[in-house]
Protein 1
Amino acid sequence: MLTIRENLSSLGQKTLELIRYTGAITILVVDVVKVMFRRPYRFRQTIKQMRMIGTESLPIVSLISFFTGMVLALQSAYQMQKISAEMYIASLVALSVCRELGPVLTALIVAGRCGASITAELGTMRVTEQIDALETLGTNPLNYLVIPRFWALLISVPILTVYADIVGMLGGYVIGVYKLHITHHMYVRMTWDPLRHRDLFVGLVKSLAFAIIICLIACYEGINTKEGAEGVGKATTASVVRSFILIIAADCLLTAIFYFIGKV
Amino acid sequence: MIEIINLCKTFNGKKVLDNLNLTINKGETTVIIGRSGGGKSVLMKHIVGLLTPDSGQVLINGEDITRMNEKELRAVRMKIGMLFQGAALFDSMSVGENVAFALTEHTSTPRAVVDERVKKCLAHVGLTNIERLKPAELSGGMRKRVGLARAICMQPEIILYDEPTTGVDPIMGDAVNELIIELHDKLKVTSIAVTHDMVSAYKIASKIAMLYEGKIIMVGTPEEIQNTKNPIVKQFVTGAATGPITDTTSLKDMF
């Protein structure tokens, strides 16, 4: 059995690790801000990354958002039918998807699909000394590897989020109109009526914050990969797990800020 | 000329370089020998500015690269070519793009001139018509040669070789040695190689330096190293399992 001393020592070590990690991410943020507007601008690489992050994520984002919209409509129908308020299902789906599920689900998909891939790619480049080679060839790895991914995520994730919102609402529409027999006209009206610009704004602000989290964690874990193939595996797992935790934590924080302070 | 003065580097409490001093004259080929994990690659990475020392200086043509900002360091790096142990070719690019990387990245040289330079560099290392291949399609020896072609593309004054013969068969190893000598003679560069392959060291070196416990304990010509009375250097170059090196680090503890 572990003694109290050992437990305290382990707790202390974990706390120190957390502080070190936070410090390292903060330094990365400062470095990224320093070079993000600096030449050379790497449009080609940014477009290539946008294709990988945005276009290639479309099928899975469509599938998950559509099903989520359907599930949301069905689950709310279960309650709403009891009080004969089925027509509010459309509003509930629209608001939930735009403010919460669209941004969060899209970010989790991108973190799992693209964040992991970014970490594995940069991690392999680290352990095979390709990042060192970049530096010896006079190229700043941050500018060459991180910035194009940063811009690509910052642009792609909000676009994917809006797309996920639309597909999610479509999923709700399919259940509402074809299963619950709400009329097309009523469903569309009840979807648009409660939606305000601020709902879309909240979702977009969240998606931007999530994009920054995914990029920072994925790139940090990749660039700091250690110990060969095993290290790449560990870094990729750490990247996905940490991104997921931070996305959910940031979502909670932002929702609280919008609710209590911004009243939006 | 490269001067390394009182260089110290510690990793996780372990002193890897301990007040290391070494001078490498222009046009010489200096081979740094030492045990695996003894700090040879760490020393190499300090010379090209990939690592920052805890203390000490690395002077290249009189300028201390440890105090340089990014822009100044980039200018110095343009004068240095480096061959990595595993060649470190960029997987996502073709051989041609790898060799031309620095040229296309830092200059606006016309495409035709770049292609011509790539062909010339590849020819220097004995390769032709492989510009379109991907690094994954090459053998270990070819990868090293392409890595070398990339290192010489910007016509550097200094070339660093990290374990140039590791990971290739003895015949290819000797071909790499011949290539290093040929490049040295043709391009008149200053070369630094780190290795524990003594056959390679004797063949390519004009000077050999032995790194032991973070310090350079002996510098001499290949003949001087071969006939040394220093028991540590003697044990290393003869490859004896017993001697002062293994007495202190104790091989028995390792098994």
Note: The longest strand of chain B covers residues 14-24.
Protein 2
Amino acid sequence: MKKRERLKERRAISPVISALILSAVVLTIGGVVWAFSQGAMIISAEDYSESMIEMTDTISERFIIEHAAYIESNLKVWIYNYGTVDIDLKVEVKSITYPTEWKPIARGGFEEIDTTSFTAGEELVIRAYTKRGNNAYYRFIVP
Amino acid sequence: MPTIDSSCHRGTSTILGTIIFIGIMFSAVIPMMIVVKQADTIYEMRKHELEILDQAMINEEIYVYIFPVTESSTTLNLKVHNRGSLVVNVVQVWINDIPHTFDDFEVQPMNWFEKNLDYFTAIPGNWYFIKIITDRGNIFSSDSGSLYFDTNGKWAEGMFAINFFISYPAAGWFDVEIRQGGAAGPILTDPPFRIHKSSSGPAFDFFDVPSADIYYVKITKNLELIYEDDVTIDWPGGPPIEWVFA
């Protein structure tokens, strides 16, 4: 019992030191949380704005298949990008895409895309699609 | 020995915690919310701009004519008539499968612009199909139809016609009188040529005329005069089709 009473009397060596230790712990933990939350918020904000910019570019895409012609036994397709953003594009005819790599078309630019030969009289649906997922269609009958 | 109550320690920590919380709110959460809000605003603005551009694309109203300067000229003239309320910028013309890009082909509203396609040479025995592309992404085919350069090196005469576009407020039947050579010339609209306009929108019709000439056109509705003027079809050197807007 005596030992217990003695321990009771010894608690809190100094109230000031204990207050300082507690404050230091709070500040340290708070600082870590602060730094973490600031970092997380910056990353979230950047991710969000990047996705919004990407979405804005996606809705800004405007392009048409302005012409298709069968020249020297090859179907050629002409694309006009009249939108406000550059696009990367491919053309699909009968489930085959042309060219194999994405074709970049600057805004306001025209591009000619070569495909392959088809059977005379065949009715084709030409689909031009961009990397961002927009489409344009054109119907063509092979002469 | 005097001791400080533990609630006092908690008070210090609470104050510090509150300051840190407010600090996090002001230095991380609120700036993030502002950035998100700005991104949303930019997206909405862009969406609105695109809606306006798409609407402008729909509102483009132009008529395209292509014709030779003379009966045997190997080049063609392109005439673009802008009947809309927006400035139209023609960026490309297609003659068959050959494109030609323009950088100075601007047509003001209610105006027309004519250009000689001197880069192009007609080959005898060929048909020519023409279309133009505007910078808003519209494609307009020639209103004067396709052209044939015959094996003798002469442009074949196409169909000569007068097109009527009636947007007069009143709906119902409109009587059209057409005389060849002028007001005193022989009447062509016998039996009478009548155009019906519904109340939902303008009416369109056309009348074949025999040759390139001056035609007197009079449009009346219940004897009230709506339009009266001479229409000249000057081909070659002009389009084989002329419009009457009443």
Note: Residues 15-60 of chain A form the longest helix (46 residues).
Protein 3
Amino acid sequence: MTNDRSQNVDLQTTETGFQYHRGSALSIFKSDRREDLVALVCALLIALGVWAHVNLGWGIFTWLGLK
Amino acid sequence: MIYTKRHPAVLIIGVILLALGYATQAGLFNGVVKFLGTGRLKPEMIHLSYVFGAVGVVIGLLKLLGPLREGSLDYYRSAIGGALFILLIAMLVRWFLAPLVAVWSRAAGPIIGGQYIHSVFGLNYVVLGIMAGLIVVNVFGIPSWAQNGVRMSRLGLKTGVILLGTLYFLQEILHLGVASFTLIGIFVLGSVGLVLLMARMMAVSNSMGGVLSAGVGVCGVSAAVASAPVVQAKSAEIAYTIGTILLWGVGCMFIFPVIGKLLGMSNEAFGAWAGTGILNSAQVAGAALAYQPDGIEALKVAEIFNITRILFLPLIVVWLALWYVRRETVVGGPVPAGHSVGAMSVGAPKVDVWQVIVSKFPLFVIGFIIMFLINLTGVFLPKGVTADNLWKGKYFDNKLKTERLLKDKDLAALRADLPKVKLPAQKAAVERLIANKKVMSLGDVHALDGLSRAKVLSKDSAKAVKSASSAVLHSPKIIGWFRDWIVWLFAFGLTGLGMQITLASLKQAGGQPLVIGGVVGTIKAVGSLVFILIFARMLGLETL
């Protein structure tokens, strides 16, 4: 089995008879590596947002006057 | 192909969430909130409902009225409906269903050792969220407009694990590192070896045995996928392995917390057990959060064990490559000339082991380490606080208001117990505590913690020491925010995970792989539990 083929295991394809043109049954991303990268970017953005909120007072609710 | 469906569901979810946020803010739910005892959740009920309600309305309108063109925008936009669907279920479970179950459980009275049904069986928002997902997918089916987005749940889990890196400090990593490497080293290598041995005894194919050993020994699905190329596993064999891991992992996720509760394990000890004994990363997080839904100590320990386990992946891939070459040489005749571990060639396709390791090693582990390194710089700590001034993620500050000082009855209990304290450092810390009515330094916090764990104090004194220590230890505000984010990312990911566990996918496990996985999984779970119960104190984990 090649590296690429090993990524294409899709347990649910046989149940639904439908396969997305990218991703697998477990992920919307083309590969695990891309999903990991997106997760890293999301985590960094959240960390930056939380830091800015706590230290600089930035935030949606502050702007909207709800907090 | 166009994935976005012109369906009003996302818009309706958005309106429901906005209404929920407004009703909570206007106090229309005050009676319900009081009955369920969820007053502390009100801020998140308002804020999350408004934010995701607005997202739902905007995306819902775009879906209904916007142009539909094939491409990435269509693909990713179609995923938002499913993500909101998961989130709505997670919100309803966390804010209403789980507290309602707790109210019913308390009304029914205690069952074992003064504990209630929901506590013993871990019927909290994590477990109920996964069960809700399981019921949705297996009874009703995922609506077509949500199917694409349900596949985003793993992204939530991975983001949560990476963000978890912000909550560790060097002392904790060093402290847990020895314990985790010891425990994981024994059980990862032991279970890989045992699966390979059983596979040989049961005459299972080398490729099946190899892929199953990585799945059962290391970290579940990703290890199975990473090891597949080096043992030239077929798709069906990977599917069997994933089915076995999934079936076993789902069982563990529900059973581990019940056993932990019955044994009265500490959060740290349970986290170590879950991180060692449960096969798949997602279920490790699920069990740890199910065990301690209102805190993340168990999750933190479980994840550091889980990540240590993933760090063993390159070693296991190399081991399997060597094992496979040797087995195929013995069974299938001589290996073609020129093979090596770096470039293994057995049969037709040539596989580069190092390339497999580099391309398949889970990057989110590197993300966790990056976040941990950022945290080490002290950027997330309040001004004037350094990592040296921390104790279990909290910083020391003993400027206290009078009402937080120890009371006369606490001081009397401590004075009465003072002769029982033998160690000079602990005795001096108690004397300073009595003289000042508060803890005077972080060193005293350490000494008093050791004294509490030694269990030599009376109940009243132990309570006074605990109260005095917690009065001078403060969580940085930013850490509280990170905790909230992590809890929600895991709640989202685990509810979505439930929606991916179909009965048909569990049936993928079958025959010999299930027998081998079940036997080795049980040995691993029981063995790691016994090991932790015996050696927890030696490994620096608080035990029973």
Note: The radius of gyration of chain A is 19 Å.
